[in-house]
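User: structure tokens for AAA family ATPase, please.
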Amino acid sequence: MTRDTSVAALDLDTQVQLLSRIQFLTRFSSNLIQITGREGAGKTWLAQRYLEQWAQGSNQTLLLCHRAQSDSQHRSIILKQLVAQPVFNEQDPLQESVDRMLGSGPANLLLVIDDAHLLSATLIAELWALVQQAQNMPGWQINVLLFSQSGRLDKYLSQVSHGQGAAPLELEIVDFSEQEVQTFVEVIFATDRLDAHGRRALRDKAAASSPVPGALMQLEQTEQTNMASSRSRTLSPMTLLAVLLVVAAAGLAFVFFPAGDSEPVVAQTESPEPADEARQALTLSTGQVEEELSESLPEPISGETALSRDVTDSINDDSHRLPQEISLEGLTVGRSDDNQRVVLPSDVVDAMITEQELGGSGAIALAEQPAVEEAVSEAIQPADTAGQTGREIALVAGEQVPQSEPGSDVLPEPVSAAPADQAEEESTNLGAALKGVDKRHYALQLAALKSLSAANKFIAEYQIANIATIYETRRNGEPWFIVISGDYPNIVAARRAETQLPERLQVVQPWVKSYAQIHREIERVK
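Assistant: Done. Predicted tokens:
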């Protein structure tokens, strides 16, 4: 079970008391209730927890406010979750649209709005008017829960309720007690298997932090950072063993392969240098090289001769394995400068080429021109080079001899390279496919996690890769990865599918979510 799943299943006394009070106030009447708390008090978690566990008998609507949303968008999000195929004008006041859609029939509606301090004064007045209308309408029960930061809505709510007999209710989210802080920390870090020292340090950090869920969840990131830094500073035993093996191998190589064996060869090969210098100096001064130098220089050193003989004996002759040398100059015709060039008319050349293609030597075509035949006989060799003669005459006359077109010389056309794999393209835009789903449809949210790896681990743990989808959103500037499942045309079908999930998956308590809300959460990433 992941940490986020463990937190979702955790019930603390202060939170249970708050949710039970909300359930009591919304059970038999219509009210507008403001639930306030400071930053990180867990308002979003409480809103979703109440919808999942404490408000099963009502038609639910959830609105997660964003600064970029307008009043028309807020009205549209709320009204689309009330009925399957709503017909309304998003510019009309909220109470008028609800009255047209529900008519005079009974209604039990629950509107939960998170980050309600981002609502405008106009929309808050419409929500208050909707609750007042429900109190006067038989068969209607409409409750509005506004989860907001402390003191942000007091001014607007006092203005809309001024001079009326009723007033909005307000509940406050209290901080955790010391015991609840320790319980919360033990649950979220239960999978880390910390030792006694680590648990003691974690309890000290929790005691120094603010007693709210948001601050305590930040300890998870701090703990992961400390663990990563400690691992980077400590060398693993395998690394130390590899370094020792490399040092030992270098020592053995130095012992068994000493570097002093090549010194005599260097000393002996350097000895001919004075002879070369003397040879060069003698050549520059007198112009005589071999005779005088051979008289003035001593005989070659016998040790060098013996060394060269030993080296020659130790070398294996493998020259017979080498391929034949490649001739860089191709075979040509007519390179001799002693013979006389003969220029023939083009018609004679064509006749000779035609005769050679039919298997002849070209002599018959040449015999038909006596003057040309006599000139050719004087200028070329006898009949053993008749084939080459015809080709050179054609080249001299300016015509190119046609050659056969062997199929083996035709190079195949290059095959176009297959496009490279585009596996990197995946997961750069999580949830892109979900934008194509009708925004009036519904899905089941299975989990909300703070990292993609945790979301993938959740899917693998519950074996739901064939039905689950992940998309990314932002909450208070932090990334969240939501795991959802299904595409249902209405909220009734979604609730029916929720009861048909496997028992081990129902333990995480999935809840219904509209695709309109999913689309807006995906847009927050931009």
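User: Anything notable?

Assistant: The chain has 23 helices and nine strands.
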